[in-house]
């Protein structure tokens, strides 16, 4: 990124713009219980941000059980059903709507790249009440999910900006790792329940508490709204 270029922002969704991480953790716990797997919740939490199939396979393996492809698909489907039951409890994170509208008002490009299905992503984005149709890349539109960079690269392509101009904003180290593999910078948010040290070890550019904190400190990453 050169000094003359304004960055484009690529946002994760769950835990970054919406306070939905713990609903996902409980939904996964219930899905695993349905197939007689009882993982420790911290094992589930640290995998949130990956694709559903990766969460299902990795957590089951770490709990002592290897799943077939059909079983992975079933657990993923069960998770989706349990998550839908809790969707009403999901709320935007502090400053999420203000941050996105501020970027739009300053003509700064941004998009959402989520590991959720398109239907889940649309339901979550509706809670932000943006009054506009944002650019969204969902897990349905890429063949591989985070920590693979496919979603972020697809989002950059949709915005017609080069990867080196993008700043990824996410709440998981998987977002940071995917960003680095895509040749992008990354900012970590603590509102998904990860620690600052995890982001620092993953080489995030900066770490902020939540979208409101990022909005208040955009100048630290070279973005001036005025």
Explain briefly what this protein structure is.
The chain has 226 residues and is of the alpha/beta class. It is built from 10 helices and 8 strands.
Written overview of the protein:
With 226 residues, the protein is α/β, with parallel strands linked by helices. It folds into 2 domains: 8-19 and 91-221, Rossmann fold; 21-88, DNA polymerase, domain 1 (Orthogonal Bundle). It contains 10 helices and 8 strands. The strands form 2 sheets. The protein has a 6-stranded parallel sheet with strand order 5-4-1-6-7-8, sandwiched between helices. A two-stranded antiparallel ribbon has the order 2-3. β4 (110-113), α6 (118-126) and β5 (136-137) form a beta-alpha-beta unit. The mean pLDDT is 93.
Which regions have little confidence, pLDDT < 50, spanning 5+ residues? none
Helix content: 40-55%
Number of strands: 8
Main sheet specs = 6 strands, parallel
Looking at how many chains there are and whether they match, the oligomeric state comes to single chain
CATH superfamily membership of the largest domain, which one? Answer: HAD superfamily/HAD-like
């Amino acid at each position: 990124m050169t000094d003359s270029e304004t960055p484009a922002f690529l946002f994760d969704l769950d835990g970054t713009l919406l306070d939905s991480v713990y609903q996902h953790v409980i939904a996964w716990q219930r899905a695993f219980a349905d197939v007689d797997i009882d993982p420790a919740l911290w094992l589930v939490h640290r995998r949130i941000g990956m694709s559903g199939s990766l969460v299902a396979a990795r957590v089951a393996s770490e709990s002592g059980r290897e799943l077939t492809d059909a079983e992975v698909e079933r657990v993923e489907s069960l998770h989706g059903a349990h998550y839908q039951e809790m969707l009403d409890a999901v709320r935007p994170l502090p400053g999420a709507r203000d941050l996105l509208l501020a970027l739009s008002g300053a003509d700064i490009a941004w998009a959402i790249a989520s590991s959720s299905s398109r239907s889940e992503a649309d339901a979550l984005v509706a809670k932000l009440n943006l009054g506009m149709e944002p650019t969204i890349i969902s897990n349905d539109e890429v063949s591989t999910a985070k920590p693979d960079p496919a979603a972020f690269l697809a989002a950059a392509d949709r915005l017609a900006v080069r990867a080196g101009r993008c700043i990824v904003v996410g709440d998981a180290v998987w977002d940071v790792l995917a960003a680095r593999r895509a040749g992008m910078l990354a900012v970590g948010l603590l509102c998904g329940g990860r620690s600052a040290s995890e982001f620092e070890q993953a080489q995030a550019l900066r770490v902020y508490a939540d979208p409101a904190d990022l909005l208040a400190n955009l100048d630290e990453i070279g973005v001036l709204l005025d």
